[in-house]
Structures are given as structure tokens and as C-alpha cells.
């Protein structure tokens, strides 16, 4: 039986949101669907998260944005606790208009799966602590609670969900590719070879190249080269490092190759770029 939940009767109109701390999952309320948005953070343990007939294991730090109409089910895998924050669809639409991205509503709703991400242990603790502070807000001042909840919603959306839409990694791409792309945001991985990328992803070189082309539109080497050059350009503009140090810090193994790639991308040499 599908459990239907509506914003009316669930969300207090005075504060325009609803939040709750859960130490266990009530199976009588699932599977469910609702007409509002819900941010859910797994704070401890693991659960099976089934959304629109697709199941995945969500551990500590898993953060989901469940959309209106998403049929979802939660099943604990041992002890499990989580926090959810619900807010009406119109509040989200107002936020998108405020941010001057009204088209984001359709982009989010058009995804086959809801936006989700994995927080680090530190990020999980910080967000959990911030959510727990909501319990200190004065109940007799709903406008204060409303303001804090809106600020929290905006921060979570801006920090964890919306950046994925400006990233070349589409949120419907395979999970292993998302994780690999996250690693490749760090300069420590800029010097990785194709063999090392294949090893990190757990797939063959051929499958890796096909997936990069399909989901990112470029080859793995072109993807990494763009990361290296962007990082190098920032170092040239915002640091006093020598060009040779910039080259190696950006993952280039050869200074001549760095000069060639940089001039091809920016039309000038690294030194000329720094002086512009």
C-alpha cells in the first residue's frame, strides 16, 4: 500500500517547513510519496533506499533531495538514524527565482533519479550539528524558526546539490564515474595515467573511455588536461610560484609539454598569461 503524504497537515504554515530526527524507520509509513521536497541525511548506520523502483545502499553521510512524486521506501540495515527536512514545493520555486535560476525546477524534476551526494565524515558532523541546533530555536517565535530553516535549506542546496548541475558530471551518470570525477577535482590526482584511472574506477580502459565520452563528452586525457590547465592558470594569477613549479603542481610531467598545452589552450605562454 502506497502511503501518501501532503504538505497540508504535515508542514506548519507558520514556519513553512518540517524537520524530524529519527532513530528508527517506521515500516508502516512506507512506501510513500508526497507533494513536497525533502532533504534527508543518514547520520548513522545504513539503510536500503528505494526510489522510483531503484534500490541503493545509503550509509552515514548519504544526502538525498527527494522530490514531489518520488515513490520511496526506506529499510534499515541494522541500527540506523537519519534526519529529514521537508518544505513545500512553492518555497523551492521561490528560492530558484531568488537565485535567478527558475529553470532549475524542471532540471531537477526531469532527472530519472533524485539528486543525492555523499558527505565526508566532517561534513556529516557539521550538518548534523547544525540541524540539531534547530531544537534550540524559540517555539514561540515561528518567524525565527522560519528564517533559520530557509537559511539552512539555501545553504544545503547551494553547497551540495546545485553545484552538480554546473559540473560536467551529470547526476544520472554511473555512481562509479561520479566518485572518480570527485577525486579528479583534487590536484593530487591530476597526474594520473589512463591505467591508474582504470584501476581507480575498477573497469577496463575501453569501458572507461567509452563512459567518459558518453557522459562527459570528452576522453579521460582531455578531461584531466582541462583540469590541469585550469589549475595552472589560477596558480599563475593567484600565486608567486615559478612557472616550473606551477607545471609540476598541476600534474604535468614535462615542462615543454606544459608550455605547449598551455599556449594551445590560452593562446599565450604561461609568463605572458601571468603578466596580462
From TrEMBL:
InterPro entries: AraC-bd (IPR003313), AraC_XylS_family_regulators (IPR050204), Homeodomain-like_sf (IPR009057), HTH-like (IPR037923), HTH_AraC (IPR018060), HTH_AraC-typ_CS (IPR018062), RmlC-like_jellyroll (IPR014710), Tscrpt_reg_AraC-type_HTH (IPR020449). Keywords: Activator, Cytoplasm, DNA-binding, Transcription, Transcription regulation. The keyword Transmembrane helix does not apply. Pfam families: AraC_binding (PF02311), HTH_18 (PF12833). SMART domains: HTH_ARAC. GO terms for molecular function: DNA-binding transcription factor activity; sequence-specific DNA binding. Residues 178-276 form the HTH araC/xylS-type domain. This is AraC family transcriptional regulator. It comes from Candidatus Enterocloster excrementipullorum.
